[in-house]
Prior knowledge:
By secondary structure, the chain is an alpha/beta fold. The chain has helices at residues 66-71, 98-112, 124-135, 158-170, 176-184, 191-201, 207-211, 222-229, 239-247, 257-267, 289-295, 314-332; strands spanning 3-4, 22-27, 33-41, 48-52, 75-79, 89-90, 117-122, 140-146, 274-279, 305-307.
Amino acid sequence: MKALRTPDERFANLPGYPFEPNYSEVFDGDGGKLRIHHVDEGPKDGEVVLCMHGQPTWSFLYRKMIPIFAEAGYRTVAPDLVGFGKSDKPTEITDYTYSAHVSWISQWLQGLDLKNITLVCQDWGGLIGLRVVTANPDRFSRIVVANTGLPDGSQAPLEMAQMMRQAYASLPVPEMAEVGHQFQNPGPVPAFLYWRKYCAENPNFAVKDVMSTSGLSPDLMGEVLDAYEAPFPDGSYLSGARRFPSLVPIMPDDPEVTNNQTAWSFFRTWQKPLLTAFSDGDPVTAGGEKFFQNRVPGAKGQQHVTITGAGHFLQEDAGERFAEEVIKFIRET
């Protein structure tokens, strides 16, 4: 598997990100290895808070929360998914599969021998992280689910899936502004299909545009936007960022539907504490907390929270408040 490695100088003097890099290797499934980067702050004998990011971000997303967790006495570990941040970036779109990401992070987790973990997951950090929990349940003590889900195709009958595919094929390739408009003003075609089309087909796909779009994190600018784009010197590094939306199993005949259905069967018996902490301004995952609250035994009786005044990337908009809610949950459970 051919992979690129972002030059270190791209990460020099990032705002609010003074953390020392840590690296380990995993088997890529194609006879080679991939290097995964992670942040590791706080006491090494402390309970572990595992911070999982999604697309198109990296561990930089948790920079406001990492010091708060560490100062509270928790070992705070934040990996960069393969294809993102300081981790290696396979060049071929087809190298990126949902199951491959689960395997890579499971290998990484086992290699570090992390235990007594509180998973904090958002966006694809949840899609991958929750599957990693099902593969390594004894390593996890509790879960915080924020602006994410575990889609299994159950919301779309096969007939609707066929219609959605036809609608997707007929869509003109949108710009990111149009994607944001569709999320804020839903029409007959699901906004997610615009998002998928933009990522897969727009030749001008840019992380900066994604991170400054209304409803995601519209107030970001300057050096912060530069930091989110730092892992991607040019388009050859963007295969993972472009690929993720196409891997979401939203239709009943999508790959990984069966695996996610199996994961839901697992979580219907999960007794350990699970907290939902969705934001009030995310047009992407609005209402998704109900799936966890209604299905997971460990979510029953928890003081679920809504992070107000935050969009999809709540770590940016309300990172400090989000971190305090996580700490409160850990201490109460």
